[in-house]
From TrEMBL:
Belongs to the CobU/CobP family. It comes from Lientehia hominis. GO terms for biological process: cobalamin biosynthetic process. Gene3D superfamilies: P-loop containing nucleotide triphosphate hydrolases (3.40.50.300). This is Adenosylcobinamide kinase. The active site is at H51. Keywords: ATP-binding, Cobalamin biosynthesis, GTP-binding, Kinase, Nucleotide-binding, Nucleotidyltransferase, Transferase.
Length: 180
């Protein structure tokens, strides 16, 4: 099953997504956490540590993946396909868009190739993405191009997903698919 979870900063989407994947997985296979936040400053390192602490007893194996999702290979566990939580699409998109060696202008296509690569390797895939489109702020051209790429990726994932869930104040709102 492929599930997209979105919401604003601090909405509770990360904890919701972790618990959802655990429920979906049922302990039958391996559980991977694909961490996409590049630790480029002290604030990002603190955020990474906070997320590690949140999931430390939840049975995830963490895999750092900043770019190149289409070439990532995950092992089967006990002969079964693993379950994967990708946290988060906003960071992966920024990495692909801005980092040297990233996909640049081809980011939406590269990221969706990566999502399809993961779907082929997993029983359950949950992707977390940030809602960054309703603040009403005008940004510089580079940031607007990034937001456009993220929006395109979110739309494509929503179209291909089995479920689309928005988390608002820790409350899940199902836009596609029913309660899981």
């Amino acid at each position: 099953m492929f599930v997209v979870v979105t919401g604003g900063s601090g909405s509770g989407k990360s904890e919701f997504s972790e618990n959802l994947l655990i429920k979906m997985d049922g302990g039958k296979g391996g559980r991977f956490y694909l961490a996409t936040m590049f630790p480029f400053d002290e604030e990002s390192r603190r955020r990474i540590e906070r997320h590690r602490e949140m999931r430390k007893d939840k049975g995830f194996t963490t895999v750092e993946c900043y770019t190149g999702l289409n070439s990532l290979r995950l092992p089967a566990v006990k002969g079964k396909k693993p379950s994967v939580l990708l946290e988060c699409m906003s960071n992966l998109t920024a990495n692909e868009f801005y980092q040297k060696g990233g996909a640049g202008a081809r980011t939406p296509e590269a990221v969706m190739e990566g999502i399809r690569n993961l779907r082929a390797q997993t029983d359950n895939l949950v992707v977390v993405s940030n809602e960054v489109f309703s603040d009403g702020v005008s940004y510089d051209a580079s940031t607007e191009a990034y937001r456009k790429a993220l929006g395109e990726i979110n739309r494509r994932m929503a179209a291909e997903s089995d479920a689309l869930i928005e988390v608002v104040y820790s409350i899940p709102i199902y836009h596609k698919g029913g309660p899981l």
